[in-house]
Specification:
Chains A, B: This is Sodium/hydrogen exchanger. The structure is a homodimer. By secondary structure, the first copy, chain A, is mostly helical. Helix content of chain A is about 70%, strand content about 5%. The relative contact order of chain A is 0.11.
């Protein structure tokens, strides 16, 4: 009893004082510092350090302080106990200590450097669970990328983006894998590494995780300077899809297990991995889109048969948020890739659900995701900085790190230049040499590479990969991120481009839409014309109140069903929708989204947000791959139509 | 090596598949269900089940399913291992298993019912760390309460609210403690309990945690029906402050440790506890307000000397959010009470910082906190439902539960009726009998009681308290929460009251402001006139751009400092501020806040949010305890002034 009492009182104190509060406070403090710094930089138009770079820097300093100032090693943690009966490490350990059973949870494997001095309790607490990254911090970032995708420009460059994302990432993965295998062989040769530690699959694993580019710094500068829209779209589209590809690739490689010698090539296992890749990608895509379709249907329902959910913007926003997050979680739970699911969920939500939301909810969802993206991104970069000093099992191997830097650079080059050459054979609007150099330069590594590396740090090879990935992220974010503005000047890439004007000018110079002889382009146009027709005729009317009513698009014998599924508001919109003058408002969502985020509004000028609210009411148009000229003429001819919306 | 390989591959699978995703998905699913249900209920104006009650119900059902359907006991967890050398349970355990060191983290003490069948892995995963409640879920709820406090009505009833909150909670705590002590004695008498398990301090501890009322259900219905503003304010104010008092009380009691027999009264220890209570309360109050003052100063700086942070609403919102949360975390880290700190931080932020924010940030912060409050509240209530079946160490003792229900009821009665009687002696505007009955009826228990109980479930008495607290929450939320509307009808309390009209009518009927003979009232008025003068003359000009410039309020020799600290905009506002016609806009924040939350706006009507944005620009007035009539005459006489703002 005496023991119990004492034990309880000790626990009490721990419970009532700052359980986890100090750790969170440190993050808050770092984020506050970062925000104040960004504010200062923005005022002085200083563009050499992006907020993420700043967050990382502060994290680094804080990690250094925590590491060398708070030297309060946990006395107990130094002692290693032996339990004869235990043969393996169970996830939950029940231990009988002086007739009282205590439950312990598995945390990690300590493979080397077990000494009490290195791991102060504080440091241990600052390293949080990788599952927090994957389940809580990453989804808002990826969703935001999908939700704010500039659809019009994206689809115009879809072929190139897909090529860079799929083929390019595969090339990058293989090149990094091969180069690293070479370095590993060299390291074994000079005795730095034992042969068995690194298989070729491990090198490929490293290659796939290092292939996820994250040019958030570059894109922020591009946006601020209004860099050429095509370049922006190519880079943004590539980086968004490339993350998805790299994640699925990493997953596929990690479950590739050849039956015999891991260094030989096993065709069956290889094709199984390829199949896995395709299956996981398609499955995640389907999962993400179906959640978005469900959201669109629910938010559509209130507009029609049922009463209005949009009368309660809080519920609407909540539902939107929860269903989008569920897309991620369901995919993860089903063994698919949540990141891919939430990315396509975001794209689909923007395409369908956004049209059904009440004006208030449109604003709320945009601001909410924007805010969550901002916070999550900075938390991750702060944490990266911290991790350099707080992570306990770093393995710094200079040769491996040097090899990784070389590999990343070579891999990026063998991705961008050959593919750009091939694409230019097919593209009418060539990708200029300067754009290729800029894309080459923008191969920054960031949150996804880090998250993939930290997901598994149980064995020594994985720990070495983690350390190396972290350093590559630091190097690329600071060096390439900081060099973006000088590079733009040096390459003489045009800035200050208005995306809409750009598109208009290009549409005007392009005489006949979709009638070029070029096969690649014609094919993708053909594919998208079919998709566009299907989307416009069936999906949009079914899922939103934009587009023609189903009664006019479905065959006559379907009329009863069509009538049942059509919103009464769609009938009213019939006249408006016949015209195509909404296309110009296609990027309404994205524009407002980003304008509220970045473009400074004069202080105390409440008209800015009023305008934003008012503008959103205009329905987002459908995507069209061709026929810009026609649409633009419509708009120019009947400007009063727009004001009716 | 073979072992390592196998181990890694097993871990890999665990890492890549749904680590934590399923648990989060279950919560998401429950919340989605809850939102859809609320939506249905709101449409049918069904008020017997509030969203929180619904969330709890769904949680309960899900807990039942998880408990009895997922019968997959973890094979390993059933085995209890022995470690001879271990003498106590360290927080981190390093264990050598077949020459590999693994780290395990302390989870809990298993005091009874150790059998493999009861604890499936799923159930274990669903019970999350109490520190998540305290550090992440509770702060937004409490901050939101402070930020949305109807200041005008609150200060008018401040005396009564403070009496109920401080004296009432103390009475409630002691009464529950005494009654429970009686029940415990009885239980010992009939042999259900061993004497040593329950001291009188434990009973007081239980009393203090059960004293935190949470009438969220009742308040939501009050708001929807526009129940009498005084009743609403009394109940809301009491419940907000009462949480703070109960938390500090619980903390003080838990650290009360008499030197000798725990059942005897130790005067020194008692006074130390009282001192602790006062110190912690005052310290937390100071901590919370100073963070808010810092936020106000930072957001004020951009308006004046430095360039504009309000040009970047995202940074402004982020800073506001992080500093408010830091108030909570710093208080916790300093051994104070975060809830109290964040509450007063919210009140102060609304009073000062809100005036400095850009219109966009005003809207963003309101919507953000509203949304977080909504989510956090429903997550907590869902979790309470789940906890009934997923928590592993419940101790159901019918007599103790019955005792607790009786005690809660009696304690509420001995809080409300005697204090109302005393207050009515001093109040000009008496608290009618029906209001007292309604307040008695609204003594629901909720999130805070649960959070305090779950914070410590290490020993058997604490586990019994937790189980009992949980059941009391269920009972009061469903029975009293569901009975609110019938009770309002039965007591014939007036509904459909417009708060502003109500205040005007009352002000008009009140002839001479602050000249009543009543001592209690005069005293508090005197106190508040001093505070009001100080706030209006020095704090408001220093922290916001509302109020007269410091140059006119400070003595002449301070002019250089005053000029340095005064916003250029304040000079411009000088003329306007001389008038008192802003007082009527005092509750601008609260009104807009709640109108956007609850009052349905017609679908597709974007004017509603435009108006809200526009209106915020009007400066929030200062609080005044008297002189309503004068101010109202001003407003009535010069309506054009208001439109200038």
């Amino acid at each position: 009893m005496e023991k119990l009492k004492k034990y309880v009182s000790v626990k009490d104190e721990d419970h009532f004082y700052h359980q986890g509060a100090v750790e969170l406070l440190i993050f808050n403090f770092l984020l506050i510092l970062t925000i104040l710094t960004i504010w200062l930089f923005k005022n002085h138009r200083f563009r050499f350090l992006h907020e993420t770079g700043g967050a990382m820097l502060y994290g680094l300093v804080m990690g250094l302080i925590l590491r060398y100032v708070t030297k309060s090693p946990d006395v107990e943690s130094g002692t290693v106990y032996e339990c004869e009966k235990l043969k393996s490490g169970p996830s939950t350990l029940l231990i009988n200590i002086t007739n009282q059973v205590y439950e312990y949870q598995y945390k990690r494997e300590i493979s080397h450097n077990v000494n009490g001095h290195q791991g102060s309790t504080m440091l241990q607490k600052m390293t949080f669970d990788p599952s927090i990254f994957f389940n809580i911090l990453l989804p808002p970032i990826i969703f935001h990328a999908g939700y704010s995708l500039k659809k019009r420009h994206f689809f115009r460059n879809l072929g190139s983006i897909l090529t860079y994302a799929f083929l390019g990432t595969a090339i990058s993965c293989i090149v990094i894998g091969l180069i690293m295998y070479g370095f590993v062989k060299a390291m074994v040769h000079i005795g730095q590494l034992k042969q068995w530690e690194f298989h070729f699959t491990d090198c490929l694993f490293f290659g796939s995780l290092m292939s996820a580019t994250d040019p958030v710094t570059v894109l922020a500068i591009f946006h601020e300077l209004n860099v050429d829209t095509d370049l922006y779209t190519l880079l943004f589209g590539e980086s968004v899809l490339n993350d998805a590809v790299a994640i699925v690739l990493t997953h596929s490689i990690s479950i590739y297990s050849p039956k015999e010698n891991p260094n030989t090539f096993d065709a069956a296992a290889f094709f199984q991995s390829v199949g896995n890749f395709l299956g996981i990608f398609a499955g995640s895509f389907a999962m993400g889109s179906s959640y978005a379709v469900v959201t669109a249907l629910i938010s559509f329902m209130h507009l029609t048969k049922f009463t209005k959910l949009c009368e309660f913007p809080m519920l609407e926003t909540g539902l939107f948020f929860l269903l989008s997050w569920s897309a991620f979680l369901s995919a993860e739970a089903a063994g698919l890739t949540g990141i891919v699911a939430v990315l396509f969920c975001g794209v689909t939500q923007a395409h369908y659900t956004y049209n059904n939301l009440s004006p208030d909810s449109k604003m709320r969802t945009k601001q909410l995701f924007e805010f969550m993206n901002f916070l999550a991104e900075n938390v991750i970069f702060c944490y990266m900085g911290l991790a350099l000093f707080t992570f306990q099992n770093h393995i710094f191997n200079p040769l491996f790190i040097f090899g990784a830097l070389v590999a990343v650079f070579v891999a990026r080059a063998s991705n961008i230049y050959p593919l750009s050459f091939l694409l230019n054979l097919g593209r009418k609007q060539k990708i200029p040499r300067t754009f290729q150099h800029m894309m080459m330069f923008s191969g920054l590594r960031g949150a996804i590479a880090f998250a993939l590396a930290i997901r598994d740090t149980d064995s020594q090879p994985k720990q070495m990969m983690f350390t190396t990935a972290l350093l590559v992220v630091f190097f690329t974010v600071w060096v390439f991120g900081g060099g973006t503005t000088p590079m733009l000047t040096w390459l003489q890439i045009r800035v200050g481009v208005d995306p809409d004007e750009d598109l208009q000018a290009r549409a005007a110079s392009q005489s006949a839409p979709n009638l070029d002889k070029n096969t690649t382009k014609a094919e993708s146009a053909w594919l998208f014309r079919i998709w566009y027709g299907f989307d416009h005729k069936y999906l949009k009317p079914l899922l939103t109140h934009a587009g023609p009513p189903l009664t006019s698009t479905l065959p006559e014998w379907c009329n009863p069903i069509a009538r049942l599924l059509t919103s009464p508001r769609a009938y009213g919109d019939q006249l408006k929708d016949g015209d195509t003058d909404y296309i110009i408002n296609n990027d309404e969502l994205t524009e407002n989204y980003e304008s509220s985020a970045h473009i400074p509004v004069p202080a105390q000028d409440s008209t800015a947000s009023i305008q934003a609210t008012g503008k959103e009411d205009i329905q987002e148009g459908d995507l069209g791959l061709g026929g810009y000229k026609l649409q633009l003429q419509h708009t120019a001819g009947q400007p009063q139509k727009n004001s009716l919306a």
